């Protein structure tokens, strides 16, 4: 019997089935700027309507949150997570997402699982007026075990050069406004899984995995609603490293984000994790978003308008002079 690619563990037919299952849905994310369809060696996207456009790109994955999804056989939200982690990053610079590409790797491809993951990306792209214009599915037996998957993505957005937000306009007296997260988002799951090894255990009346797999919140509509109304001085996406690592990324030298931690609305599942794992509060804030998925820094004259425009936003601090860049007061 002769050897074939399939006998080595790669089933091309399953890949074709995946494409068939997602092709129509993916095409629904396209607009007139997308010049070709799935199947080409590269994806074409035409840019127009900008005076001095700057492309802003971001890439990310979902980390070991994927393990929760795979073990629980719940795949629908992971594609949303992948898109959100990339798109929320470029929002920090005022960019509008244009297009997204995904990369899905596995040990043995199951077209049903792969399609469900990609269809989550489709849902997120539609919500963000973004086109899913390409991707790659890699079946790698021997590298991944059967049933193992990894997923990553790449998002490109656009902003006028004179409208780039980079934190350079932040000054003392500016207010720091929190936009709540939808949960852990896609960070810190190596520690989450250590403390919560049983994803099926009951938590607040339902299986724990339902709480853990709530998808990362998409902030596109909120952020661009603000940008249409006011001048935003700085935006930070609170991902790995929590508030301690992400807020300082936008704070200029000589200034400090002074934050009153007592104002932060911490999700109950994070409080349970902290208690059960005997985790120090500082460690929690240096690992998880603690309920703050994104922060915006605005002139104090605009703070009330932000709170009016975004129903669930709330103030947590202000910018002061200092050398530490962040001062989190417990």
UniProtKB/TrEMBL annotation:
UniProt xrefs under PANTHER family: TRIFUNCTIONAL PURINE BIOSYNTHETIC PROTEIN ADENOSINE-3, TRIFUNCTIONAL PURINE BIOSYNTHETIC PROTEIN ADENOSINE-3-RELATED
GO CC annotations on file: cytosol
Protein's cellular compartments: Cytoplasm
EC number assigned by the record: 6.3.3.1
Family assignment from sequence similarity: Belongs to the AIR synthase family.
Protein keywords: ATP-binding, Cytoplasm, Ligase, Nucleotide-binding, Purine biosynthesis
Recorded metabolic or biological pathway in which this protein acts: Purine metabolism; IMP biosynthesis via de novo pathway; 5-amino-1-(5-phospho-D-ribosyl)imidazole from N(2)-formyl-N(1)-(5-phospho-D-ribosyl)glycinamide: step 2/2
CDD domains named in the record: PurM
Source organism: Chryseobacterium soli
Pfam families reported for this sequence: AIRS (PF00586), AIRS_C (PF02769)
A molecular function GO annotation: ATP binding
Reaction equation(s) it catalyzes: 2-formamido-N(1)-(5-O-phospho-beta-D-ribosyl)acetamidine + ATP = 5-amino-1-(5-phospho-beta-D-ribosyl)imidazole + ADP + phosphate + H(+)
Enzyme class of the recorded protein, top EC level: ligase
Domain PurM-like C-terminal positions: 171-324
Protein name: Phosphoribosylformylglycinamidine cyclo-ligase
Location of the PurM-like N-terminal domain: 54-159
